[in-house]
Write a structure and sequence with these properties.
single chain; alpha+beta; two-stranded antiparallel sheet; flat
Length: 200
């Protein structure tokens, strides 16, 4: 029986699947009746009897755990592809776009590096590259904090250097810091907080 170490007060009737502890043999056995609560990759309370009772429920467990295994298998290759793709987008952007990158490469003057690493975007930033605050909305306006919140949430996915540059150079605010917080779900420092202060 798996022990995933999470707070199980959310329900008295649950089945949690841990794909890390799943073997191919155990995966096939899910489709057949027989003490599912005793399997190494299953942590359950109350839901085991209903899961055992019908093939449809065992099929859902089978598909769920198979999907989790597949996602674990492709996680690292997809992360590598994403990083390479993102770096390519930044390289093209730094050289004036894909067309200019090719044109400059043929002429032998293409830069193989990003000119301003502080302004390199994440993928989201390439979809919408606006970073300036709306000049028609000034502090004190009823829409100001809503507009500031939208732009802040948009750049929150970017790297620390990018955020600091935008806050100080574009928004003319004081950048107070970039902080990491513990994410209980992923058990890592993945929550970030960016603080800025308006002058005056």
């Amino acid at each position: 029986m798996a022990n995933c170490g999470c707070n199980k007060e959310f329900s008295s009737d649950y089945i949690l699947l841990d794909p890390e502890k799943l073997s191919f043999y155990e995966l096939i056995r899910v489709l057949f009746p027989g003490d599912i609560e005793k399997r190494k990759f299953v942590d359950c309370q109350g839901g085991a009897d209903s899961a055992e009772s019908s093939f449809e429920r065992r099929w859902v467990i089978f598909i769920s755990i198979l999907a989790q295994k597949f996602l674990q298998f492709v996680a690292k290759p997809l992360a590598s592809f994403g990083s390479t793709f993102e770096m390519g987008l930044n390289l093209f952007s730094a050289n004036g776009g894909f067309g200019m990158f090719l044109f400059n490469s043929v002429r032998g003057i293409s830069s193989g590096r990003i000119k301003h690493p502080r302004l390199s975007h994440r993928f989201n930033g390439h979809l919408d590259n606006r970073v300036e605050l709306d000049k028609s909305i000034i502090p004190g306006d009823s829409k100001y904090y809503a507009a500031l919140s939208m732009m802040s949430s948009k750049i929150s996915y970017e790297n620390k250097a990018f955020i600091e540059t935008i806050v100080e150079d574009q928004w003319k605010m004081e950048f107070l810091g970039f902080f990491y917080f513990w994410n209980v779900v992923t058990d890592s420092l993945t929550f970030t907080l960016n603080l800025a202060c308006e002058g005056g």
